[in-house]
Design a protein that fits this description.
The structure holds 2 protein chains of 2 kinds.
Chain A: H1 5-21, H2 23-26, H3 31-49, H4 55-67, H5 69-75, H6 81-86, H7 97-110, H8 115-137, H9 147-180
Chain B: H1 2-13, H2 18-34, H3 40-50, H4 61-82, H5 88-94, H6 97-117, H7 135-147, H8 153-169, H9 188-210, H10 220-246, H11 253-271, H12 279-291, H13 293-312, H14 322-334, H15 343-348, H16 357-363
Helix pairs in contact in B: 2-3, 3-4, 4-6, 6-7, 11-12, 12-13, 13-14
The chains are: A mainly alpha, B mainly alpha.
Protein name (chain B): BHLH domain-containing protein
Subcellular location (chain B): Nucleus
Keywords (chain B): DNA-binding, Nucleus, Transcription, Transcription regulation
Chain lengths: ~180, ~375
């Protein structure tokens, strides 16, 4: 599942559009400002490729919308920006920490474990922690209470990240080559 | 009567098959005949051997019981020859007609349960439900059916076979078919859990293909670690690249960004030749003209190459791949003009999509 060329093209178009939108405002700004704009527009372009079908793209759009609302709105003009920005993500499952701790304690007491069980429990805990880490890395991961969904979204996210990196890298190379001349 | 009891005891003693027992009975009967005894016994035994239980006026209670017993024993062993050979002696000794019948049917039930364990799809006789149920439920139904012993064994067997055939034929798409292997739990919760785990492992395989260097790692925790690292590296790469794009040019800011735009437009044109002409392109070109006359040449040569590409492929159906286009572009930029390609540039060359983190580190 490598990023396809059509995806790259689409991403490039969207990104270009985004940079053009905020082109005039870039004029006399510092490097960091420009970098921010470039990154934001790239993010929105990447997220808009999915047209709000995936959880991570919606979360990313919402996140960027808090930073630069007008840009996102203009970039997403083709695909109903409002609905995407205001689309509610699946609800976060919350449980009271105290209750969870208490129930865990009870469970621990109930089954005094053997060595092998202990190891298995440790491994499980490790996997759980790693999954939590993945949640924090993938945008909108906190809202995916389902492991299957999380992994699916991660797959999709990685593919679009790869497209983004590919396109950006090629452009950087092109500009560098142009400068060298 | 004493003789009758003696014959009974002989029969009870022997744990042999029916035929043998009957042969013994005949022997005993012959002996009795030779001794010149009552002929009622002969009639009785012939009856019992023939298998018809006609009411005989000469019969006494004990004998009628014996005749019935032998018949039942016969029946039981016939049934058990088909199925379970071990329980024949028990059924004989119990002597009770109904009990024995129940037991023989239970034997069939046990067989059915075994079948269930071997994952044979069954739907039960009286129930005729269409839905696919897991094995445990199925076996429960079989047990219920054992309770109602109205139907004959052979009929049941036939029905089971029919059910097997029909269930093999009917497969609905609405249901997820889960098959528990021998020794696996079969309640609905663990089945669902198993399905979930299988799904996750399937997705993980995809991820393994996607994330470089992940296929050597076994274990979910390690894989998740690798995936997290990869995603983070991609994110940081994007950060880095956008930084680079922002600060790529030593010239004043405006020109630098425009430079990016110009390149983008060119690449966009190569990918889509029907593209609407970008308004900023002229500006960019003019900028090049003003600042760097050599670049103008490069630009024009690029345009030529793109035009050539699309001339060779006017239909646009089999459009060349993006990467190859880019590479063409850059080869025309870097190599065709006889300019020495820079080492960093060649390092960055993997435009074909396989970007690796080492590259980034080297550049950094």
């Amino acid at each position: 599942m490598q990023p396809t060329s059509s995806m790259k093209e689409e991403f490039l178009k969207k990104w270009q559009m985004g940079i053009q939108i905020c082109g005039p405002s870039i004029d006399n700004t510092s490097v960091s400002e420009r970098k921010k704009v470039i990154k934001l527009s790239a993010d929105v372009a990447m997220a808009s490729l999915r047209k709000g079908t995936t959880c991570w793209s919606r979360a990313l759009i919402q996140k960027t919308a808090t930073e630069d609302n007008s840009l996102v709105r203009q970039m997403l003009s083709g695909i109903k920006a409002e609905t995407l920005i205001n689309k509610t993500l699946p609800k976060k499952t919350l449980c009271h920490r105290k209750i969870v701790r208490r129930s865990k304690k009870i469970l621990m007491r109930r089954n005094a474990r053997s060595a092998s069980e202990e190891a298995a429990a440790k491994a499980k805990k490790l996997v759980k922690r790693k999954t939590q880490g993945l949640r924090s890395v993938v945008p909108g991961g906190e809202f995916m209470n389902n492991d299957v969904l999380l992994i699916q979204e991660t797959l999709d996210y990685i593919v679009s990240l790869q497209t983004q990196v590919n396109v950006m890298r090629s452009i950087v190379d092109a500009t560098e080559a142009g400068i060298e001349r | 009567m004493k003789r009758a009891i003696a014959s009974d005891s002989i029969l009870y003693r022997t744990d042999k098959s029916v035929l043998e027992r009957q042969r013994e009975c005949l022997k005993y009967h012959n002996q009795l005949d030779q001794a010149g005894d009552n002929s009622n016994f002969a009639a009785c035994f012939s009856n019992s051997i023939d298998g018809s239980i006609g009411p005989d006026p000469g019969w006494e209670n004990g004998w009628s019981c014996f005749g019935l017993g032998s018949l039942e024993m016969n029946y039981g062993t016939v049934a058990e020859d088909k199925e379970i050979p071990s329980s024949s002696s028990e059924t004989w000794r119990s002597g009770n007609f109904k009990k024995r019948k129940l037991e023989s049917v239970k034997g069939v039930g046990a067989l059915m349960e075994e079948d269930g364990k071997q994952n044979m799809n069954k739907k039960m006789t009286g129930v005729f439900k269409e839905e696919e149920e897991d094995d445990e439920e199925r076996s429960k139904i079989t047990e219920e059916n054992i309770g109602s012993t109205t139907k004959s064994i052979t009929k049941k067997k036939k029905v089971i076979k029919e059910q097997q055939n029909s269930s093999n034929g009917s497969s609905k798409s609405d249901y997820i078919h889960v098959r528990a292997r021998r020794g696996q739990a079969t309640d609905s919760h663990s089945l669902a859990e198993r399905v979930r785990r299988e799904k996750i492992s399937e997705r993980m395989k995809f991820l393994q293909d996607l994330v470089p260097g992940c296929n050597k790692i076994t274990g979910k925790a390690g894989m998740l670690d690798e995936i997290i690292n990869y995603v983070q590296s991609l994110q940081s790469q994007i950060e880095f690249l956008s930084m680079k794009l922002a600060a790529v040019d030593p010239r004043p800011d405006f020109e630098a960004v425009d430079d990016i735009f110009g390149k983008e437009i060119i690449t966009a044109q190569t990918t889509d030749y029907k593209n609407v002409v970008m308004p900023s392109q002229e500006m960019v070109n003019s900028g090049y003209l003003q600042f760097n006359p050599i670049q103008q040449v490069v630009q024009s040569s690029e345009d030529e190459t793109t035009i050539n590409m699309f001339d060779s492929d006017p239909s646009g159906e089999a459009r060349p791949i993006w990467d190859s286009e880019m590479q063409n572009l850059y080869s025309s930029l870097g190599f065709d003009q006889g300019l020495s390609p820079l080492p960093t540039y060649t390092n960055c060359q993997p435009l074909s999509g396989s970007m690796n983190t080492n590259n980034l580190k080297m550049e950094m």
